[in-house]
């Protein structure tokens, strides 16, 4: 049975307004009877041992699994800036290892102006190999998060290529249902409209067999049903590859509905989809 977790970025605006902290987000996950949490690195108040232990105990006492720490890196950088990005990933691998969290999230590369995707690719592979090897040495997996908005990998084929080029058992895939090129939430075209030149559902199908975690993006949930992404189409794709892992609620529709109202709606909706599709 697929288990639901709460991505802490679902409370991005509430957190940034100082109305909730990471412990409060953990409380929300427990309130909505979720099974786990995904912790974004910017939501940690500290990396001191006492604070990390407080977060760990809060999850344990509420019966919540800590799925991964989301780190926002950019391996499109060069020189000293690239080394800073690699070191950032290693820092959070150390935090994850200390807390007993099995995985950290990794992006790929944003393409610098004047450079092509193919020119940036070798640097992305080399940086990722170093981070994956470090993760392996600490017993922490590195999960590749497909992304768009000028970032690679942005298609299912690119995800598979990068996984294969890095070729490390500790480098795996976090599948985001809304972040492939052509998605209504992440295309270069009009927001809210699927870009017909890209088959983003095909990208989900391509990379789903390699996924160890699924981020279920929610953009428009005021009606009680996600309006931009077709989960009647997405759920069978995930089910048909035999996926039985974690699925995160990731709300990014703050321009439609505030987070305290949206998150419980998203929780109810995804639970109903999982039940309908017997997942």
TrEMBL record:
Pfam families: AP_endonuc_2
Designated name of the protein: TIM barrel protein
Source organism: Candidatus Lucifugimonas marina
PANTHER family, per the entry: BLR5974 PROTEIN, HYDROXYPYRUVATE ISOMERASE
Domain Xylose isomerase-like TIM barrel residue range list: 26-258
InterPro entries assigned to the protein according to its UniProt record, in alphabetical order: IolE/XylAMocC-like, Xyl_isomerase-like_sf, Xyl_isomerase-like_TIM-brl
């Amino acid at each position: 049975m697929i288990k639901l977790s709460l991505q802490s970025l679902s409370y991005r605006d509430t957190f940034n307004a100082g109305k909730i902290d990471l412990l409060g987000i953990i409380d929300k996950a427990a309130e909505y009877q979720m099974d786990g949490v995904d912790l974004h690195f910017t939501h940690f108040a500290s990396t001191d041992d006492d604070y990390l232990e407080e977060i760990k105990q809060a999850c344990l006492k509420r019966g919540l699994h800590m799925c991964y720490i989301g780190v926002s890196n950019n391996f499109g950088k060069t020189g000293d800036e690239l080394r800073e990005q690699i070191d950032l990933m290693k820092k959070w691998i150390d935090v994850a290892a200390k807390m007993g969290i099995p995985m950290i999230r990794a992006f790929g590369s944003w393409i610098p102006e004047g450079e092509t995707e193919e020119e940036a690719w070798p640097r992305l592979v080399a940086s990722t190999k170093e981070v994956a090897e470090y993760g392996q040495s600490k017993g922490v997996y590195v999960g590749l998060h497909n992304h768009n908005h000028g970032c690679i990998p942005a298609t299912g084929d690119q995800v598979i290529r990068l996984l294969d080029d890095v070729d490390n058992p500790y480098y795996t895939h976090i599948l985001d249902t809304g972040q492939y090129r052509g998605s209504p939430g992440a295309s270069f075209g009009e927001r809210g409209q699927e870009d017909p030149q890209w088959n983003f559902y095909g990208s989900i199908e391509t990379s789903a067999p390699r996924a160890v975690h699924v981020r279920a993006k929610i953009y428009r949930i005021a009606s009680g049903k996600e309006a931009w992404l077709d989960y009647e189409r997405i759920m069978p794709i995930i089910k048909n590859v035999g996926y039985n892992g974690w699925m995160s609620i990731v709300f990014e529709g703050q321009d439609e509905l505030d987070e305290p109202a949206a998150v419980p709606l998203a929780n109810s909706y995804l639970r109903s989809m999982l039940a309908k599709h017997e997942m």
